[in-house]
C-alpha cells in the first residue's frame, strides 16, 4: 500500500470526469483537473461551488458518483480514506480534544507504525515552532496555534498530497497573512503537492502557483494568479477575482490586431489575442486600476479607449487609492481606482470627466452576454442565502 | 432621561450584593433544608441505627442506641455471599447493558442525525419502558421465560437447553432482568454524548491512516467516555441495590438473593433494623468508593 | 454527576414542546452519508431488533390486559374488553384505590419538588454564594445513592422519631428524591436563558417581580413542565423507597409487588397500559408539534 511509506516528494493528482450528486442537488458536474507534483494549487470559489466537495472526494471522505481519481498515477477512486497517501488540514482543525498536541501529531505515524513517532512529531512541531507546547491539550491553544498544529499533524506524515480546507478562515487578518507566508515557506521546504481550497481570492493569489476558479461545480478558468487576474475569460472570474468594469456591445470591427465593440455609440477596442470571441454580441472589460480620469476630453488615439463624458457620482478615499464612481450614459456606472499620488482627489462629485485606458488592458469574455447577469448574481449574499435555504429544506425533507 | 435612568440604576446597584445574597438564600433555603431533613439526617439515623444494640428483655424490633460495631462484623459474616453477589450481578448487568446500548445509542445519536424526527421517535422508544411499571415489565419477562413458555420450550426442543433446566430463578435470569431494566439508563447518557460527537474528528482519524476499527477505539470511544462513565454508574448503582429482579416472586430464586433483598427482609420482615442499617451503610460505602476510583481512573472528574 | 442529569434532561427534553435542542446541547454537524456497503445495514437492523427487545414486555403487558383471566393473569384464556370496562370491579376496587393513591402521591410530591427544585436551580445558575460545592454535592448524592439506602434511611429516621408511616411519609420520601432531578432539568433551561432578556426587562422599567413573572418565568416554563412530568413519572413508578415508608398504604407498584406471589389481576395490566398509552401520546404530540414547527421555521428561512 502506498500509505505504508513516506512519499519522497509530492505526487500529481488527476481527476477524470468527476461527478458528485447528493440527494436533491449536484455538487460537481464533470470535473477534470490535473495538478502537477510539487505545485501549490488553489481551488477558489464562493461557498457552495463544490470546492470543498472536491477536496473531500480527493481525501476519500466522499465517494464520487462517477469519474476517477488518480494520485501519482494510481487509481484511488475506491480506496478508503485511511489507505490514501493524502492528509487534510481541516477547516475546523479537528484536533482530537482528548489527546495532547504531541499525541495528535504522532497519531498518523502510530497508525502507520512508523518508527520513532515521538521524535518525528517533535520535529514537525519544531517546524511550526510549537514544540514547547507539545504537552498541552488543543483547547489550551489559540486559533493560530491550533492551525499550526493541524498543519504539523498533516505534514509529519509526508503525504504525497496535502489538502487544505480553508484552514485560515477562522484567523484574523494579520494572523492569516502571517500564516499564508509560513504555509508557502513550508511547502517550498518540504516539496509536497498542496491542494488548497479557499473562498479568499487574495489568499489564493498570494499562495498558489496555479489557481482554479470554481463555480457551480465546474472550473471556470485555471492558470497562474497573474494571468487569471489580467485576462479573465468569464464574467464570473472577472468579478470574483477583484473587480471589473464590463461593457456589452456588438462587434463592429475585427482586424488581425484588434476587435472593436460598439458601447453606446463609442468604439471600445480589445487586442485579438485577449478576446475570447470575435463576432456578435461580446462583453469586454477592464480592471478599475487600469483606468485614468481626465477633466478634459483626451485626444483620440488608436492605442487608447476613451469613454465619456460622464459624471462623478461618488468619491471614496481608502488610503493608498481613491475609488471614483463615474456614470456614463449608455455604458453604466464605471469604477475607477486611482493611486493617491497627490493630496486630495483629482475630481469631485458632480464633475464631468472622461475615462481612458490602454487598449492592451482590455479583455473580451467568452460568455454569451445574456448569461452575464446570471453569473454576476451568484456571489451576492442574497443568492447565497437562497442556496443555503434550499440546501436546508432539501436536508429536512430527506 | 436616559442619563437619569443610568444614574438611578447605579444608585440602586450599590447595595445589590447583599440584597442578592438574601434572594439566593431565600431561593435555596427551603429546598436545601428539605434535603438536609429528609436525605442527610436519615443517613445519620442510618449510621446510628446500624450501631444499635437489642434492648434487654425487649420485644423483637426494640433496640437502644449504642456503639455496637459488632453489627457490621455480624452482617458481613452472615451475608458476605449476598454482598459479593450484588456487585457481581450489577457488574455483569452493567457490561451487558453497555454492550447492548452502545451500538443503539451510536445509531440514534450519530447515524440518525439527518432525520431529527426519526431520532426523537427512537428516543421515545428507548424511554418507553419508563412509562410502564417496571414491576410489570419484570413479571412479563418472568412469564415469557418461564419453563412452559414458548422461548424455553423451543430452546429445549432444539437441545440448546437441558430438558430439566430452568431459566427463571437462576443468576442468569436475575442478570438478564437487571440488564433489561437499566438499559434506558445506559442508553440515554451514551446518546447525549454521542449526539454531540463531532464526526469531523472521525474523518480526521481516517485521514490520518486509522482503520474504521482504530478510529472507533482511538477516537470514538475516548470522546464518548463521559457518556460511558455516566451510563455505567447509572446502571451499576441502582442494579447493585435492586431487590425486585432477584426476588423469588420475580426472576430470582433461593440462591440469587442480593443485598437489597436482605436489607428489605431485615428491615420490613425480621425487624432487625441494625442489621439492615449496617448493610445499607456497607452498600453505600462500597458504592462511593467504587464510584470515586472509577471516575478518577477514567479521568472524568469534571462529571461530578 | 451530570450523567444522571443528562439522562433526566433527555427524558425531560422529550416532553418539552419547544427548544429541546437547547436542553440537549448544540447539534454537531451532520455526518455525510458514506458509501453503500453490507455493513451499513448492520446498525439499522440491530436498532430494530433492539427496539423489539425493549418493547416485548410492554406488548406482553398490553396484550394480557385483554385476557379473559380469572384470578391470576398467567395463561391466555381468550380476548375480552371486560377488564378495560370494569377496571375497578376486582377485589373491591383494590387496584383502583392503589392507582388513586399513586396519583395523589405523585401530584403532591411533584408540586412540592418542582417548586423547591426550581428555586434552587435559579439560585445556582444566577447567584454566587459560599458553600456552592457543598450544595452541589448535596444535590448529587441522592441521585448516586441506591434507592434501598434512601428508603431504609428514611424509614430508620421515621422509626427513630416515632412517625407513623402513611401517605404523608410516602410523599415526603418521593419529594426528596425528585428535587435533585428537578434541579438538574430546570438548571439546563436557566443556563440556556440569555441574561440579557432579563436585563432588557429591567431596562424597560420592569420591577424585579414583574420581570420574573413576565420574562423569566414564561421562558423557564417549558423546562419546569418537563421537570414536573419527569418527577411525576419517577414518583408514580417508584417501588423500592415506597416499600420502606408506606406502612399499610397501597400504591400501584406496591400492589403489583404484593400480588406477584399470588397472581396479578388483568386490571393491573389495564391501568399500566392506559398510563403507558397516555404518556406515549403526550410525548409524541410534543415531538411531532416540535418537528412541524422546525419544518415551518426552515421553510420561512
TrEMBL record, chain A:
A GO cellular component annotation in the UniProt record: ATP-binding cassette (ABC) transporter complex
Keyword Nucleotide-binding: yes
Record's keyword terms, sorted: ATP-binding, Cell membrane, Membrane, Nucleotide-binding, Translocase, Transport
InterPro entries: AAA+_ATPase (IPR003593), ABC_SmlMolc_Importer (IPR050093), ABC_transporter-like_ATP-bd (IPR003439), ABC_transporter-like_CS (IPR017871), Mo/tungstate-bd_C_term_dom (IPR008995), P-loop_NTPase (IPR027417), PotA-like (IPR005893), Transp-assoc_OB_typ2 (IPR013611)
Regions annotated as coiled coil: none
Catalytic activity: ATP + H2O + polyamine-[polyamine-binding protein]Side 1 = ADP + phosphate + polyamineSide 2 + [polyamine-binding protein]Side 1
UniProt EC number: 7.6.2.11
Domain ABC transporter, chain residue ranges per copy: 13-241
Entry keyword annotation includes Transport: yes
SUPFAM superfamilies: MOP-like, P-loop containing nucleoside triphosphate hydrolases
Domain of life: Bacteria
Cross-referenced Pfam families: ABC_tran, TOBE_2
Quaternary structure annotation from Swiss-Prot or TrEMBL: The complex is composed of two ATP-binding proteins (PotA), two transmembrane proteins (PotB and PotC) and a solute-binding protein (PotD).
UniProt similarity note: Belongs to the ABC transporter superfamily. Spermidine/putrescine importer (TC 3.A.1.11.1) family.
Task of the protein: Part of the ABC transporter complex PotABCD involved in spermidine/putrescine import. Responsible for energy coupling to the transport system.
Name of the featured protein: Spermidine/putrescine import ATP-binding protein PotA
Organism, scientific name: Orlajensenia leifsoniae
Lineage of source species: Bacteria, Bacillati, Actinomycetota, Actinomycetes, Micrococcales
TrEMBL record, chain B:
Pfam family, one: BPD_transp_1
Keyword annotations from UniProtKB, A to Z: Cell membrane, Membrane, Transmembrane, Transmembrane helix, Transport
Organism lineage: Bacteria, Bacillati, Actinomycetota, Actinomycetes, Micrococcales
UniProt topology in membrane: Multi-pass membrane protein
Keyword Endoplasmic reticulum part of the UniProt annotation: no
A GO term from the CC aspect: plasma membrane
InterPro entries (alphabetical): MetI-like, MetI-like_sf
Biological process terms in GO annotation: transmembrane transport
Localization (cell): Cell membrane
Keyword ATP-binding: no
Transmembrane segments: 23-48, 87-109, 115-136, 219-241, 275-295
Occurrences of domain ABC transmembrane type-1 (ranges): 83-294
Listed name of the protein: ABC transporter permease
UniProt family annotation: Belongs to the binding-protein-dependent transport system permease family. CysTW subfamily.
Domain of life: Bacteria
Principal subcellular localization: membrane
